Amino acid sequence: MLGVETASMANAALWTVVCLLLQGLAQLLLHWITPYDDWKEISNGNTAAAIVVAAQAIAIALILYHAVIGNETIVQAIIWGIVGILLTVGSYVLFELATPKINIGEKIREGNAAVALVAAALMLMTAIIVSGAIS
Q1: Structural domains in the chain (count)
Q2: What is the extent of the structural domain holding 110?
Q3: Any idea what DSSP says for residue 71?
Q4: pTM, whole model, 2 decimals?
Q5: Burial readout 68-98 (b: 16 or more C-beta within 10 A, e: otherwise)
Q6: Transmembrane region positions (predicted)?
């Protein structure tokens, strides 16, 4: 009995580490596509930047959760997690392109919470849709 529990704990630890690594990679990718330094803005008290980063983290976690529960192997979960991350990042890029009259990155850098909330809602909306598609 103890062997099964130990194996289950090891398996849970492995899935957790893999998901945390994917979460970190997703955050790096999202950081790379934004025209401002997320963490510098947050450390300077920019609430708009914090809203977007928090929504990104929740969105990616939601996608990874569904990648884990919707797949039997860790390889499948990684593949679908990466697909979900790329779709979410793509939606953020499309949002930038679809709003040429508003420079999203600049508005967030300026601390525009209204723009940040719309960007956050878009990230979460996309994550919900993608989560349903991959699970």
Answers
A1: 1
A2: 2-134
A3: -
A4: 0.88
A5: beebeebeebbebbbebbebbbebbeebbee
A6: 12-33, 45-68, 74-95, 115-134
